[in-house]
Each structure stands twice: as structure tokens, then as C-alpha cells.
Specification:
Helices cover 81% and strands 0% of the residues.
Length: 532
């Protein structure tokens, strides 16, 4: 899983580079496309994404334990495909009010460009949903690889399409008024075609996993009543979270128009920063949580509270070791990492995005812990229990974003929103663990806190070493993209060694759980007679 995600994220970097080269990281066209292309993702997460996580895996795991399991899965898939089709058509027709709700552009030309982009992009909703439906069924059948590798196809299609755009129309087509039907069709059509390919590539793997799907309609007698209850509460929680996302998007879209600065972080800058923020989470945390979720669902179904508690504890500790290092690395190396992605952009755009990256990165450990806690709630099909936590989190995001808008210059509004998100993850993780302690009678809090405290200490030392190394390389090392590569390799490598050395000195045994699979693969690759 991690290897598939790593390749996908590497290609995602190339995709981001190609997109930035085509339309920039700041400016009217970049922000308009960002809002439009974000809509299907947000709508999917609201209407289907979280519901699928909450409902599908636990339901499918249970289904395949009984005789008529495949029929049950068929009904789930058929209902899901039909619901996605209806929603996609309706929401595509509603593109104009959706864009106006999600953006506060100062320019009418930019608003109309975003609406046109949205007509092309919102149909992605159906194919995102199909990808998630089929992928979660494969996960429940213990076939994790295809779900993680499918985005590679999406990225390849996008890179080729954006390259065609650059070859035909040139680079940095930023002004909204210069866009015609051809430019819009190539750019937005490429983005949608990539999502279509990502979904369809999973179809051949279903039969290999023992899933022979046939269309079956009708919910009566299928046992979906409980699943519907879980889905309803999941929808409520996601709708609450959407309020924070909506406010952040509107503030980000208003920031460029409130400043005379040529390079102000807007929605596009937010998206690039979020891509970098999600990279370490996707490479390691998601892979771990995907495997652990299936295990948790089985343990919860078997009412094995001790096993759930053990899986939660080990997951929190192992994920924490990685996310602390990732957070330290992203904060210290925010500028050179952003420079690598936006190599074709001026320094002003790089600085605008890097500030948002650093603000988001400090929340990575808490985001990993919150994600782990969510899986426990979903394993118990208790989406309702998360709603009070999600309310508290969105209050933090809304309050922090508005406070930042009131107190900070417009050039820092998006960074303020990113920092508010980081604080909300801390609130969510702590609140979730407190409530889960009541259900599980214990969450092994002492061991979890001890591991995180040691990791934080090692991470602070590594960050200090990295900052000194970065300052030295900025003064005496190469400049530009070459300098960014050297800084990331040298400083990142030094930070990793210092961090691992600190964990070893403090005898953090969870380090073996994190590195064990990698070391075993290296030993198998070298053969029995070759020392590692």
C-alpha cells in the first residue's frame, strides 16, 4: 500500500508542477480552477465519502461472514451507484450557486470562469464515488493494493493533459478574461478524465478478489436500516465540518482582492499547501489506518474490547512516531519543498504557499491521532458519537479563521486558517480519546502520551539541527531549484538521523514496529547470506 501511495504521490508532485506551470499558483485562473475542481471533492466527502468509510467496510466485512454476503454487497453497490448518479446530475446543474456559495471573487470574469470550470469538474463526483465504493469492497476483501495504486493512473492522465495544454496554449495563462472554450475544455476535461480512469481501473481487480458483482435493486430485507442510520449521522458530522471548509474557501478567495501585493495566498495556494501537508499522511498514516480499520471492524464485530484497545494504542503510537518527524521536516523545509513543486513560479508565489504549508504542518501529529480515533468510531458504526467532537472542531476553525482575518494582513489570512485547522485537530484528538476511554474503559493513555512526548523531544532536537543546517546551506549552498534539492536531501537526511538516534537513545520500542516491515523486506531482498 505504501509503495502504491508513494508512486501516486510522486506523480502527484509532477501533476502539481505541471498545473502550476500551466496556470500558476496564485492569480485569477489558478484560484477559479481551484474552487471548481475542489467542489466535487468537497461534495463527495459530504455526500458519500465519509458515509462509505462509516458504512461500507464494516457492512462488507460482516456480509462476507454469512452465506448471502455477496447479494448484500451487490445491493449496497447498486444503491450507491444510483445515488451517486442522481446527485451528480443535480449538483452539476447547480454549479452557479455552488460556486457563488464557495467563493467571494472580486472579479465577475473570474466568477464566470469558475462556474464554467465547475460544469466540467463536478461530474467527477460520480467517479470519485465509484472509486471509493469499489476500493472499499476490495479493502474489505483484504485486497489493499489496487485502491492505493489507482490514483497513479489519474496522475498520469493529468500530467499528459496539462502538458498538452502547455504545448498548445503556453504557460501562466493567469488572467480570467483570456480564457476561451478550448483552454477550459483541455484543462478541466483533463482533470475529469483522470478521475474517470482512476475508477475504471479497479474493475478488473474485483473478480481477482472474489467479488462477482451483479446489479440488484431493492433495500427491503437487505438489513440496510442500521447502515442508513450510521450514514445519516455521518452526513450530519460532515455537514458540520463543511461549514468550516466553506468559510476557509471564502476567506481564501477574498484575500487576493484585499491586498495590493501581487502574490497573495488564495484557494490555489491553499490547495498546493494541503497537497504537501497530506503527503506524509498519505504515504504512511493512510496505509497503516487502512489495514488497521479492517482489523478494528472485525474486533468490534466480535465484541473484543481488549483487542480494539490494543489496536488503537499501537496505531496511535506508531503513527505518532512518523507524523512528529514529518511535521518537523515540513516546518523546517517548507520553503525548499514548496520551491520544488512550484519550480516554474516566482519567489513571491513560493513564499505565499510555504507559509501556509508551515502553518498546516504543525498539526500533522494531531491529525494522525484524530484519524486513528475516527476509525474506531466507524468500526463500531457510531457516527453519532463523533458529532459533538466535530462541532467543537469546526468552532475552532471558524473562530480562528475569522480572528486571523480580523487581525492579520490579507497576505496571511490563508496561513491563519491553516493554523486554525491544526488547533482543531488537537481538540478533536483529545476529545475523541476522552470519549473513547468511556467505551473501551481504557485507551492505554500512559503509553500513548509517553511515546508522543519522547517523539516530540526528539523532533524538537532534529528541528533545531535542521534549522541550523538550512541557514548554512542558504548562505553557502547553491540557489534555485538545485539549492532546494540539496537542502531537502541534506537537511532532511540529517533530521531523520538525529530523530532516529534520539528515539534509540530513549529506547522507544515502537520504532521497531514502524521500521520492522521495511527491514524485513530489505533482508529478503538481500538474501539470507547478505548482512543488512
Amino acid at each position: 500500500m505504501a509503495s502504491g501511495t508513494a508512486v501516486s504521490r510522486l506523480l502527484g508532485f509532477l501533476r502539481a508542477m505541471a498545473l502550476a506551470a500551466a496556470i500558476g499558483a496564485t492569480g485569477q485562473a489558478a484560484d477559479a480552477f481551484s474552487v471548481a475542481n475542489k467542489l466535487p471533492n468537497v461534495l463527495f466527502m459530504l455526500l458519500a465519502g465519509g458515509v462509505l468509510n462509516a458504512v461500507l467496510v464494516p457492512q462488507v466485512v460482516r456480509a462476507y461472514k454469512r452465506q448471502a454476503g455477496q447479494e448484500y454487497v451487490d445491493r449496497l453497490l447498486s444503491f450507491g451507484f444510483a445515488l451517486l448518479a442522481v446527485l451528480t446530475v443535480g449538483l452539476t446543474l447547480a454549479a452557479p450557486p455552488l460556486v457563488r456559495l464557495y467563493a467571494d471573487f472580486a472579479s465577475e470574469a473570474q466568477l464566470q470562469l469558475a462556474i464554467t470550470f465547475a460544469y466540467w469538474c463536478i461530474p467527477q463526483l460520480f467517479f470519485y464515488g465509484a472509486y471509493a465504493l469499489l476500493g472499499q469492497v476490495l479493502n474489505a476483501r483484504q485486497s489493499f493494493g489496487p485502491y492505493m495504486w489507482a490514483p497513479v493512473v489519474n496522475n498520469v492522465v493529468s500530467i499528459v493533459g496539462f502538458g498538452v495544454f502547455i504545448a498548445v496554449f503556453g504557460r501562466d495563462v493567469t488572467a480570467a478574461a483570456t480564457w476561451d472554450a478550448g483552454r477550459i475544455a483541455v484543462l478541466a476535461g483533463t482533470a475529469t478524465l483522470g478521475v474517470v480512469a482512476q475508477a475504471l481501473v479497479l474493475v478488473p481487480f474485483l473478480r481477482r478478489a472474489g467479488v462477482s458483482y451483479r446489479w440488484r435493486w431493492g433495500l427491503r430485507g437487505s438489513g440496510l436500516g442500521r447502515a442508513g442510520t450510521v450514514a445519516t449521522w455521518t452526513f450530519v458530522g460532515l455537514a458540520i465540518g463543511l461549514l468550516g471548509n466553506l468559510l476557509v474557501s471564502r476567506v481564501a478567495s477574498a484575500a487576493p482582492g484585499a491586498s495590493d501585493d501581487a502574490y497573495v495566498a488564495g484557494n490555489a495556494a491553499y490547495d498546493y499547501a494541503f497537497t504537501l501537508f497530506m503527503l506524509p499522511h498519505s504515504l504512511v498514516t493512510v496505509s497503516l489506518l487502512t489495514a488497521l480499520f479492517t482489523r478494528l471492524s472485525t474486533q468490534a464485530h466480535d465484541e473484543d474490547t481488549a483487542a480494539v484497545r490494543g489496536t488503537l494504542s499501537s496505531g496511535l503510537r506508531v503513527v505518532g512516531l512518523f507524523t512528529v518527524l514529518a511535521a518537523a521536516g515540513l516546518v523546517v523545509l517548507a520553503e525548499p519543498v514548496t520551491r520544488l513543486v512550484l519550480f516554474s513560479q516566482p519567489q513571491g508565489s513560493v513564499d505565499a504557499v510555504a507559509g501556509v504549508v508551515a502553518a498546516m504542518a504543525v498539526g500533522l501529529p494531531a491529525f494522525g491521532a484524530w484519524s486513528m480515533c475516527q476509525r474506531v468510531y466507524y468500526a463500531y458504526e457510531d457516527a453519532r458519537g463523533m458529532v459533538p467532537i466535530q462541532v467543537a472542531m469546526v468552532v475552532v476553525v471558524v473562530g480562528g479563521t475569522l480572528l486571523g482575518q480580523a487581525l492579520l494582513p490579507s497576505t496571511a489570512w490563508v496561513a491563519g486558517a491553516g493554523l486554525s485547522m491544526s488547533v482543531s485537530y488537537v481538540v478533536g484528538a483529545v476529545a475523541a480519546l476522552v470519549l473513547l476511554r468511556r467505551r473501551l474503559r481504557d485507551v492505554d493513555a500512559r503509553a500513548v502520551v509517553r511515546t508522543h512526548a519522547r517523539a516530540l523531544l526528539a523532533g524538537l532536537v532534529a528541528a533545531g539541527v535542521g534549522l541550523l543546517g538550512l541557514l548554512a546551506l542558504e548562505r553557502w549552498g547553491p540557489e534555485g531549484v538545485a539549492g532546494a534539492v540539496v537542502q531537502c536531501v541534506v537537511v532532511g537526511g540529517a533530521m531523520g538521523l538525529v530523530y532516529l538516534g534520539g528515539l534509540r537513545l530513549m529506547r522507544v520500542r515502537e520504532l521497531d514496529l514502524l521500521l520492522g516491515p521495511l527491514l524485513r523486506r530489505l533482508r529478503r531482498g538481500r538474501g539470507p547470506d547478505r548482512p543488512v
